[in-house]
């Protein structure tokens, strides 16, 4: 019986529990055993009680749960070879030769390094006399399959990361809540949203709530953005709008790559336009809580595909990442996806903003 490990890594995202549930149940349905690796890479390195077999009923009710019930952690030890050696030993001791990981690009790249080093690690375990040849013999290859879990929607070669639509819905709900109090007092609000280096949450929240102005890292505003924003906001006010909503991505920057702080936007709205302005940082309310229907569906379909990808893999198959493209669940090369993602950040760093928007498939934004 094959034993498939499942773990979540990096920042939690709504839908991660749906991934674990789908991987556990699909593994069992396909005659395999499923193992939960708790606390992300920490569990892989520490082993012991942090690696547990999971049965069908262990994941009952997990679809609607927020966060990740098997935990996640940032693990420095796994970044070093001795940590990965320990991880390899723990996998073999538990009889696990395939790992399905739901996390961001960093977490998935880490897993691929383990796969690359696998044979070398096994040799080292034998030569260190930590395991004998008979123990390592059945574990010639390690299969890794990635699923992208992140609220940021910052991975290339997939249309949506698991969690991004739940986060977007929460942001919209919160902006609606702010709308009513803003309108009552005719106030302006500068609302900061998460997303790290990616402006997807900010942009989509702006479109979905009819915000007056959006700041995002991939498309910094024009050089004279201060005057442009003020004239747009005052135009909207003249048209009868009783409130002003400016959405600012946490990674927002100007064309010289200097961070645009929400306080700067607030000061402009207050001092130039005389608007009573408040700043709201939405913070982790965007990340926790129950997944929306789309993320429940996406995590389930991708979890099923991930197990199928494990069963289909040959030693030559490059590590796949399960993506969704034009509403189809597909497999892409993990390394290609990570490379394409880094290209966006490189384009931003090189101030090639048109290219960054093109790579993000958002070239339609004016
Ligand atoms: O990647 C998800 C994310 O929520 C980002 O949007 C944000 O920048 C970061 O994680 C916050 O991380 P932490 O919860 O460790 O502060």
TrEMBL record:
Assembly: Homotetramer.
Binding site for substrate: 150-152, 187, 194-196, 250, 278, 284-287
Residues annotated for ATP binding in this entry: 11, 74-75, 104-107
Protein name in the entry: ATP-dependent 6-phosphofructokinase
Lineage per the UniProt record: Eukaryota, Fungi, Dikarya, Ascomycota, Pezizomycotina
UniProt-annotated catalytic positions: 152 (proton acceptor)
Part of the intact protein present: 15 to 380 of 781
Family in the record: Belongs to the phosphofructokinase type A (PFKA) family. ATP-dependent PFK group I subfamily. Eukaryotic two domain clade "E" sub-subfamily.
Binding site for Mg(2+): 105
Gene: PFK1
Chain residue ranges for the region called N-terminal catalytic PFK domain 1: 1-366
UniProt domain Phosphofructokinase: residue ranges: 3-310
Top-level taxon of the source organism: Eukaryota
Function: Catalyzes the phosphorylation of D-fructose 6-phosphate to fructose 1,6-bisphosphate by ATP, the first committing step of glycolysis.
Compartments in which it is found: Cytoplasm
